[in-house]
Write a structure and sequence with these properties.
single chain; alpha/beta; Rossmann fold; four-stranded parallel sheet; 6 helices; disordered N terminus
Length: about 170
Amino acid sequence: MPEPSRTEAPNATDWQPRIVAFFCTSCTYTAADLAGISRKKYASNVRIVRMPCTGRVDPQFVLHAFAHGADGVLIGGCHPGECQHVDGNHKAMRRHRLLLRLLESLGIQPDRFRLEWISASEGDRLRRCIDEMVARVRELGPLALPSRFETLDRETAPVPPAATEVSHAR
């Protein structure tokens, strides 16, 4: 299915949310693998990005995902205190709080961004988490952030030179 253009609004009847998920390799990505092996079905709206650790999820990755069409972003990692990189999930918690404030200031609802602790053995929990997030983002509707850029581009376009000239006639 081709990607919608920046000006094209999604049809409400066939719209499906797009979720980008950043999962740590040691825990949540392994839980996704377990869910697949166990034939646990979950929403296919999620595109998983495998990360070495949630502490490596740069805030720019989240902003980039939203700016390029994601309707929601999910970060999944090891339970606090169980990170093999010692404090990666503590960094992720701090960044999550910071990003929630930033996203809210940009007009993005907090329910579109979620942080979950899911260990490698919690395939069923991963399934529930993904299904819940997809359902919640579906309720919120399309974010359509890329189409908002066109309005912003028009508002911040350079002013033509003729409009800036001031008459000095006396």
